[in-house]
Amino acid sequence: MPLTFMQPSRYRYIVVEGPIGVGKTSLARRLAERMHAETLLERPEQNPFLARFYQDMPRWALPTQLFFLFQRMNQLRELTQLNLFSGLTVGDFLLEKDPLFARLTLGNDEMALYQQIYDTLKLQAPAPDVVVYLHAAPEVLAERVRRRAAEFERGMTTEYLALLSEQYGRFFYHYNASPVLIVNSERLNFVDKDGDLDLLSERLMNMRGGREFFNFGD
Predict the structure, then answer these.
(1) Predicted TM-score (pTM) of this structure
(2) CA 183 to CA 191: how far, in whole Å?
């Protein structure tokens, strides 16, 4: 029987992060269900530029990135105004990593414009109490992306996923705004196996340091 976790008083806002295909949205939903929490999830299907971006990144990178930035800020602003942080919320995006995608695809002038807008908006974003950073090898990410076969992801290359994974690793190597639980997700099946979710949830609830590692199977 799976463990049942009461809403932990030490956390009000948990964020699950990681590159495309790593399973962050699936884990965020499962944690929210387990902890009786609200969710705050990305909505890529609402971005009208995303499919075109994967077909022609240089042309569509700026409108794609700005749409996501405004969408995420509106979600966070709405959440704060509704005072839902008085309970527990589990999200699947961290605003501070937003420029990571921009640096991969924008030219110098576009990046300067994006950075101006981002710097104006980012001060309004609340910091998570803890971040769960999921990572996996690029070939694992590529296989998971192919398996789920989302229409707008069909133009994504393995090379792009590898570069994205590398940038995520660099970002979280320096990230210190919140405690981080770094999880190797390659052998972790938190969607279908309650036992795997139990192990991860227990490790999350018992974090003591600012940065801890969970390599499932060790």
Answers:
(1) 0.88
(2) 15
- Distance (Å, whole) CA 89 – CA 85: 7
Q: What is the pLDDT of residue 117?
A: 94
pLDDT higher than 50, residue 27: yes
Averaged pLDDT, 153-175: 87
Q: Can you tell me the distance from the alpha carbon of 154 to that of 145, in angstroms, rounded to the nearest whole number?
A: 9
d(CA 60, CA 160) in angstroms, rounded, equals: 15
Contact between 38 and 89 (Cβ < 8 Å): yes
Rg of the chain over CA atoms, in angstroms? 17
Domains of the chain from N-terminus onward: 13-215 (3.40.50.300)
- Report pLDDT for 5: 45
Please state the rounded mean pLDDT for residues 50-55.
Answer: 89
Residue 15: Cβ-neighbour burial (10 angstroms; 0-12, 13-18, 19+): buried
The pLDDT value given to residue 6: 42
What is the residue type of 103? R
HEC assignment per residue over 55-118: HCHHHHHHHHHHHHHHHHHHHHHHHHHCCHHHCCEEECCCHHHHHHHHHHHCCHHHHHHHHHHH
Q: What one-character DSSP code corresponds to residue 181?
A: E
